[in-house]
Amino acid sequence: MSGNESDSSSKDETCIFCLIAHEQDKETEIIKKNKELVCFRDINPAAPHHYLVIPTQHIHSCYSLHRGHVNFVKQMAEMGKAILQDQGFTNKKDISLGFHQPPFTSVDHLHLHVLAPASQISKYMQYKFIPGGERFVTAKCLRKRLKHSPPPVDHP
Ligand SMILES: [Zn+2]
Ligand SMILES: [Zn+2]
Questions:
Q1: Residues annotated as part of the active site
Q2: Does domain 34-147 correspond to CATH entry 3.30.428.10?
């Protein structure tokens, strides 16, 4: 039906995270959500607390973001911190919040990893979450990078 066309750009039926975001994946429990974001547990936890915050809209990766997303990234990080608080983890110095960068992404739908305690990330998985490398960028660094990126090119 042509009436659905406006929806199809924001949701990819073959993307598992889109299904989760729209609560169509029965296996995944959403532990926090608002209009734009949902949060759930990483299926393959690398630390005692390991959550993912994802936009409900299908955004491919942090390379799809531009200067206009600085606040959005901040909101994602804030939801991550709120989740940790909800789960009783309060040591804000021992957390890791960040994104994988292509080609090191497991699912091509933007997701923020929320890990705590950062000091207890499994040593077998540590290499995936080293900030400052080409694989993993912290939310803070990403915001700084976006702030200095050129404005988005709009195709009318
Ligand atoms: Zn998606
Ligand atoms: Zn990832």
A1: 111
A2: yes
Ligand 2 center–CA 107 separation, angstroms = 7
Distance 128 CA to ligand 2 centre (A): 8
The structure tokens listed for 95 are: 């957390």
pLDDT in tens, 44-95: 999 999 999 999 999 999 999 999 999 999 999 999 999 999 999 999 999 9
Radius of gyration of the chain (CA): 16
Q: Which residues of 93-127 are buried (b: 16+ CB within 10 A; e: fewer)?
A: eebbbbbbbeeebeebbbbbbbbbbbeebeeeeee
The pLDDT of residue 3 is above 90:
no
User: Any idea where the domains of the chain sit in the sequence?
Assistant: 34-147
- Ligand at minimal distance from the CA of 16 is 1
